[in-house]
Design brief:
single chain, about 100 residues, alpha+beta, 4 helices
């Protein structure tokens, strides 16, 4: 392999790594009260998208995943962040796609 092939391979790796990092979203928590879900319109939008919603205690998240629930996120494309919805009493918002 020539030096230029090694340099080119390294350049491709560096560019690909930068693109992947650019496309990544940071994960954050959004602390809300239980009324936020409806007041913000998030609950209505999630239901219109076909999700049944449930607030879940953290220790039951994995059990809920086994029956089809997933953690729901509020996406902020400008800040490149996805925010997990957490109620002040530590409940996590999860949704299950309707079949």
């Amino acid at each position: 392999m020539s030096l230029s092939a090694i340099s080119f391979g390294g350049l491709l790796y560096a560019v690909a790594k930068d693109i992947i990092n650019f496309l990544k979203y940071t994960e954050e928590e959004k602390l809300v009260d239980l009324k936020w879900l409806e007041a913000s319109g998030f609950g209505e939008a999630a239901r219109k998208s076909g999700f049944d919603l449930r607030w879940v205690v953290p220790k039951k998240i994995e059990s809920k995943k086994l029956i089809g629930y997933q953690i729901l996120y509020e996406i902020d494309e400008t800040a490149r962040a996805r925010r997990r919805i957490v109620a002040a009493n530590e409940l996590i918002l999860m949704g299950k796609p309707r079949e």
